[in-house]
Structure formats: structure tokens, C-alpha cells
Amino acid sequence: MAARMQDAKTHLARTVEEAHLALNEAFPQSIESANRAILTKLVDGHALQQQLHTELSRFAPQMDRIEVYSLAGARRHAVPCGAGPVMVRTAVGYVLCGADDHALIASLIESGELESGTRQLIERLLSPGDVFIDVGANVGMHSLAAARTMGGDGRVIAFEPYTPTAQLLERTTWMNGFAEMIEIHNVAVSNEQTERTLYLGMTSGHHSLYPLDPSFSASESSIQVQVTTLDHAMAQLPAANLIKIDV
Questions:
Q1: Which of 4, 45, 137, 235 could staple 160 via S-S, CB 3.0–4.6 A?
Q2: Is 19 inside a domain boundary?
Q3: The whole model's pTM is what?
């Protein structure tokens, strides 16, 4: 019995030793193999990450523009003001438009302004204390841009011959806090002082002292307006630093 127990212990000890040797041989190999697999995945993952970064970088400018437009669009809205004008928030402030001037309202809601290049040039050239002349002011986008650029310190003389638009412009300047800075003349500008026919376009910015193509004319085709010259209008004013003529 004792001999059999001894044999069993010897066999168990040998089995444990063999298993221990086998583990010592296999375990480092398993770790090395696992390390290689992990490193391979890390390298592959890094390469994929670099590829994704490169692909995303190509679309970054477009994504930035989409974000800017989305944020700007979220800030723009139009508010009907009773049976009269529509108030639109634009890049230069709140602007009142005729309720039936659908093209103008759509443009302002879509982009927040009408001529961004002209606005940026005005902002670059003007400084506080300057005098800005806006011939063909329309709803006042450039007059407001000039007033804001000068920080309320300066003068803006705006000419708008169409009375309903000039009246909206007066309310717009007051609403934006520039009523004392922006001076509005409800006349057209030409090379003589007289009365002329103003042909009305489908949108306020297309009114003209010259006949329009019938496809661009409003149902009320024309009205009579007063016309003056810049020399006469500016006789009592200081020299202008910048004149914008859009007629």
C-alpha cells in the first residue's frame, strides 16, 4: 500500500513538472503572439485613422461653410408687421421691406445681405468721422453697413427716389439706432434738377429713370419723382470720403 502511494505521488509530481515545463515553453510564445497581434491591430488602426483624417480634411472647408451658413440661417427670420412692411434680420441689422417685394425678402432671408463684396469694401474704406454718400440707397443695406463701421460717429447721406422705400428706410434707420446719423433724401440723383419719370421694377432695387424691359416692370409701371444733382445736394455738407452709386 505504501509503495503504491509513493508511486502515485511520484507520478503526480512528474505530471506537474511536465505541465510546468510545458507552460514555461508555451506561455511566453502566447504573450509574444498576442503582442504581435495587438501591435498589428494598432498599426492598422493608426493607418485607418490617418486615412480618415486625410479624407475628413478634404471636406473641412465645406463643413465649415455649412456650419456658418446654418448658424447664420438660424439667426435670420422675417416678421410681418401688420398689413405693411416685413422686418428681416440681416448681416447689418434689422431691415424693413415692402410686403410685396418677394424677391428682396427671399434674398435677405437666404443670404442675409444683397452685395457682400460692396459691403466689405465700404467697411474697409470708412473710418469713424467720415462722410458716406449712398446714391440709390434702396432699403439701406449699405447705409447701415457704413453707419455701423463708423461706430455712429460720422454722416451718411442716402438718396432714395421711391417714396414707399424711402419711408421704410427712415423707420429702418431709427430702428437700428442711426436716425441722427443717416440723412435721407427722397429724390433721384442725375445731372440736373428737375422732375423725371421713375420706371418701377418688380423689386425695389430695379427702379430706374430709364424704361425697363416689360418682363421686369411692375404692374404700376411708372411714377414722377424729383431729381437733383450731387453738387446741389452736397453744397452745405463737408466733402465725402466715399460715394456709392448703384442706379
A1: 137
A2: no
A3: 0.68
